[in-house]
Amino acid sequence: MFKLLSKESNIFSIPVYIGFLLLIVIIFNILNFNTYEAIIAGITFLGIALGYFCFHSIALNYQTHLPLFLYTFFIFGLYPGSLDIGISISLLTNSFILLLLTSTNEDIRKKSYVLVGSIVSLNFIFLPTTWPMAVFVIIHVIATSEKVVLNLFRFLLGIILIAFSYFSIMFFLRFTSWNTDYFPFGKMRPLTLSEYIALLPLAPTILMLMYALYDHFSNYNKKSPITRYKYTFLLVFSMAQLATIIMYMNTSYEYLLLLAFPSSIILSRMLKFLPKYWIQELSLWLIIFGLITFKATTYFDLF
Predict the structure, then answer these.
(1) DSSP string of 212-229, one letter each residue
(2) Interacting residues of 103 by C-beta distance below 8 A, sequence separation 6+
(3) With bands split at pLDDT 50, 70 and 90, how would you rate the model's confidence at 240?
(4) pLDDT of 108 above 90
(5) Where would you find the membrane-spanning parts of this chain (predicted)?
(6) Confidence of residue 237 (pLDDT cuts 50, 70, 90)
(7) What is the Cα Rg of the chain in Å?
């Protein structure tokens, strides 16, 4: 199976995977269909579907089927069916941010910081626990921009514009009280033992991710500057998502969807560079069975 997925993808690959994704969303929502759930499912589908185009934008997948397959399977394994609107919006906004910040058009990247700030602010309104994304963008601006102060100003301007619009609308609608959920550190709680046990089927995948990071930094000097830059970008993005997951996930395991995209790229690269074919095949099946088991345990509430 690994050899099959290692073949080069073509122009028809992404539509096929998106079609399969649509099927997943429909199947998991067909028994709980109403207008609200349909809207959330639509936003979720759009956000995840945009993720497929981010693979081409970030260009770390060697144009093979493997990362696309892993991404699809991560969605299958981690998507609970009924999703909070905050997570749905976050999946959508994350895809937009990745597309903007990894655009090959330098002019678009430079002029997109106001839009990125607006997206981050909108993301925070729907899901306050995603505030680490703002930190990620600030780090990205400082690390990559020639005009750091100007681009930070553009980013903050985008945030302020959305915040001002939001407060104006809320004031007009006479919502004048402040929800404490919008304070970043108000809902933090460490995971309990039972919550860790529920993640046990994902242990092989987590260990592989850790090995992938070790392997990357062990061979860091052998990689091209552009690969190092893109991989670092992906890691910083992953750290922002991981911060949200560690601090706020608790038993809301749908938060793990935020890591589906970067994990797919990191694992696909790790599998590609494993020394023996049987190890590659075994590792791939461990990921698949781990996700299937996790899906079964969470869907049927076995733990």
Answers:
(1) HHHHHHHTGGGS-HHHHH
(2) 57, 109, 112
(3) very high
(4) no
(5) 12-32, 38-56, 68-101, 113-143, 155-176, 196-217, 283-300
(6) very high
(7) 20
Q: Which residues, including other chains, have CB under 8 Å from residue 283's CB and lie 6 or more apart? A: 208, 270, 271, 274
Amino acid at 267: L
DSSP of the chain = -HHHHTSBP-TTHHHHHHHHHHHHHHHHHGGG--HHHHHHHHHHHHHHHHHHHHHHHHT-STTBHHHHHHHHHHHHHH--SS--HHHHHHHHHHHHHHHHHT-S-HHHHHHTHHHHHHHHHHHHHH-GGGTHHHHHHHHHHHHH-SSHHHHHHHHHHHHHHHHHHHHHHHHHTT--SPPGGGSTTSS--PPPHHHHHHTGGGHHHHHHHHHHHHHHHHTGGGS-HHHHHHHHHHHHHHHHHHHHHHHH-TT-GGGGGGGHHHHHHHHHHHHHT-SSHHHHHHHHHHHHHHHHHHHHHHHTT--
pLDDT tens readout for residues 63-86: 778 888 899 989 988 888 778 888
Report the C-alpha gap between 80 and 84 in whole angstroms. Answer: 10
In this structure, the number of other CB atoms found within 10 A of the CB of residue 171 comes to 10
Phi, psi at residue 16, to the nearest 5°?
-65, -45
CA distance 272 to 279: 10
Unique residue bearing structure tokens 């102060």: 149
Whole-structure pTM value: 0.89
Q: How many C-beta atoms lie closer than 10 Å to residue 36's C-beta? A: 9
Phi, psi of 157 (to 5 degrees): -60, -40
User: CA-CA distance, 159 to 196, in Å (whole number)?
Assistant: 35
